[in-house]
Design a protein that fits this description.
The complex is a heterodimer of chains A (110) and B (135).
Chain A (H helix, E strand, L loop, with lengths): L2 E3 L2 E3 L15 H10 L6 H17 L5 H12 L6 H7 L4 H8 L10
Antiparallel strand pairs in A: 1-2
Chain B lengths: L5 E6 L8 H12 L5 E6 L36 E4 H6 L11 E4 L5 E4 L1 E4 L1 H10 L2 E4 L1
Parallel strand pairs in B: 1-2, 1-7, 2-3, 3-6
Antiparallel strand pairs in B: 4-5
The chains are: A mainly alpha (110), B alpha/beta (135).
């Protein structure tokens, strides 16, 4: 099902993940979130931007355990825990945040 | 406490041309969630999987060599390279990427995950494995 943003159509897979990594921009992220009735706050962007940087460096989307640990290291302990991340991304932090970050669904991940 | 098994993944093939190397890496990353003891062995053409400066522009495949450096984050930090395989290909450890991990029990000090082993040590390692996966 294609996603329409600012008059441009973007290809997505059956679960709504962006088909092409390079199609991503902030408006696309907001539209992907809107499709789930979610609104992106500053706290969401922190995680989304972190994921994009992680992908850029390692070419994978991290598993949730790895994400939690890495967020804690980068953004502080109060954010590096699953409670905080699940509040931001109730469908599963790695899965949902990766979707908005335009990354593929994490390998074997919730 | 759950039983921990020793998983040994043997990587024998060049990184591209077949899907073995990438599949192995993905299985390792998924398996890491189960908190078992994991050892990776690179032998034969498998040593090429860890070479520095890989470039896949000409073959239309994703360059997944950067992903190996994420293994430390997944607590996969026992990575063995067969010395003879390197020698046979005119390679040394300097030709391979340096994979590291942060030691939680030592104030997160960064340590090398890589170890050069000979055939005797390799045989021992295989002998001690509970689960052996060949790629």
């Amino acid at each position: 099902m294609p996603l329409d943003v600012n008059g441009k159509s973007y290809e997505t897979d059956e679960e709504g993940y962006l088909a092409n990594l390079n199609d991503w921009n902030e408006d696309v992220a907001a539209a992907l979130a809107a499709a789930d009735d979610a609104e992106l706050t500053e706290s969401h962007w922190e995680v989304i931007n972190f994921l994009r940087e992680y992908y850029e460096e390692y070419q994978i989307a991290p598993a949730v355990r790895v994400l939690t640990k890495a967020i804690g290291k980068k953004l502080g302990k109060d954010k590096g825990n699953s409670k905080y991340l699940y509040e931001l991304f109730p469908y599963g932090p790695a899965k949902q945040a990766c979707k908005y970050a335009g990354l593929p669904k994490p390998t074997g991940c919730v | 406490m759950s039983d921990t098994k020793k998983f040994v993944y043997i990587n024998r093939k060049a990184p591209y041309g077949t899907v073995y190397a990438l599949e192995s890496l993905e299985v390792v990353l998924i398996g890491a969630a189960f908190e078992q003891e994991v050892q990776l062995v690179f032998v034969d053409d498998g040593v090429y999987q860890l070479t520095k400066g890989q470039n896949t522009d000409g073959i239309g495949m994703k360059n997944f060599s950067k992903t190996y450096s994420a293994l430390g984050d997944y607590d996969v930090n026992q990575i063995y390279v067969d010395e003879q395989s390197l020698k046979d290909r005119g390679l040394t450890m300097d030709d391979l990427q340096e994979l590291t991990y942060e030691d939680e029990d030592d104030d997160w000090a960064e340590k090398s995950s890589m170890k050069l082993i000979n055939r005797e040590q390799l045989a021992e390692l295989i002998d001690e494995a509970d689960v052996l996966l060949n790629f």
